[in-house]
Design goal:
By secondary structure, the chain is α+β, with helices and mostly antiparallel strands. It is 48% helix and 21% strand. The protein has 9 helices and 11 strands.
Length: 356
């Protein structure tokens, strides 16, 4: 199907949905069709803008080619045509990007997991800084950031930490953050001034609803125990901590931050559902191996994606060879969009190229 045919089918579908919704004959599918109509709206607007610009360009070409056009009018037409020549490719690309298949998880909330990697105490400290980077980024975006689980070290670092992030297009913005983040700097505990290299692992999982992934009660083993703090001391005297094992996959999730066993179980199920949903997404993507190779990042936790070099004040993303010399703004979340926007654009370009 040509691009023009695709555009026409989108415009036609949008018109059909509009007529059906206004006539009130959509029945049980009203909510689904309303959403589809709403989603197609911006695409149709983009198509109309591009078609209008192409029509204007054609009119200007005819005016410029007409020997009866006076010189002043011809000069004006040539100026307007030059402006359109710059505008048209951008409008076409915008329409093509909007026509790309949508990741159904993009609009979902996310579960963020940050874990210390190699590097001992320094890795744990870096993991805590990364966790706070995403917390500040969420605040800048107006998202809700709720810490679900946290395991601290004596120096204030995090062995691991988990958070729920709620808001508009959370997963779409954060999904490229999954992978290994490497830091190079002189640790506060280093007396010789030597630069150490440590790592932390980030996983961003789309938050799954029960309709996305159904978990059978018979597939779960639920253990309760007393929650413990640093050093193993008991935090409370009731068996409020919960460990859930998904028997078919072996995935284990523990929660002990809440004093209520019920709330810990709810949080653990939320994380479990997200992990199982992502595992299913990974399985489907693995089957599309050719498409996967063209994408910016696989989301694999073992893939080294970014290096933070504090002595040089730079952050480098290895997937797109982008380096920013503004490490402080990256760590406060202010410059994170520069990486995310570039990664999104690169992914869109790769997917467009795969369609050609």
């Amino acid at each position: 199907m040509s691009l023009e045919d695709k555009l026409e089918s989108v415009v036609k579908r949008h018109k059909e949905l509009g007529e059906a919704l206004s006539s009130g004959v959509v029945g049980d599918s009203f909510a689904r069709q309303s959403k589809e109509y709403s989603d197609l709206g911006p695409i149709v607007a983009g198509i109309e803008e591009w078609r209008k610009a192409r029509a204007e360009a054609a009119d200007l070409d005819a005016l410029i080619a007409d020997p009866t056009t006076d010189k002043e009018m011809q000069a004006l037409a040539e100026s307007e045509r030059a402006t359109l020549a710059e505008k048209l490719p951008k409008l076409e690309r915008s329409v093509q990007v909007m026509l790309l298949p949508k990741d159904e998880a993009d609009e979902k909330n996310a579960i963020l997991e940050v874990r210390a990697g190699t590097g001992g105490d320094e890795a744990a400290l870096f993991a805590s800084e990364l966790f706070r980077t995403y917390q500040r980024y969420a605040q800048l975006k107006g998202w809700k950031f709720e810490t679900m689980e946290m395991s601290e070290t004596p120096l204030g670092g995090f062995r691991d930490a988990t958070a729920s992030i709620t808001g508009r297009n959370v997963f779409a913005r954060l999904k490229y953050e999954s992978g290994v983040h490497r830091v190079q700097r002189v640790p506060a505990t280093e007396t010789q001034g030597r630069i150490h290299t440590s790592t932390a692992t980030v996983a961003v999982l789309p938050e799954a609803e029960e309709v996305d992934i159904h978990i059978e009660e018979k597939d779960l083993r639920i253990d309760v125990f007393r929650s413990s703090g640093p050093g193993g001391q008991s935090v409370n005297t009731t068996d409020s901590a919960v460990r859930i094992t998904h028997i078919p996959t072996g995935v284990v999730v523990s929660q002990q931050d809440e004093k209520s066993q019920h709330r810990n179980k709810a949080k653990a199920l939320k994380i479990l559902r997200a992990r199982l949903y992502q595992a299913e997404r990974d399985r489907i993507e693995a089957e599309r191996s050719a498409a996967r190779k063209s994408q910016v990042g696989t989301g694999d936790r073992s893939e080294r994606i970014r290096t933070y070099n504090f002595p040089q004040g730079r952050v480098s993303d290895h997937r797109i060879n982008l380096t920013l010399y503004k490490i402080e703004k990256v760590m406060t979340g202010e410059a994170l969009d520069e990486f995310i926007d570039a990664l999104t654009a690169e992914d869109e370009a790769a997917r467009l190229a795969a369609l050609e």
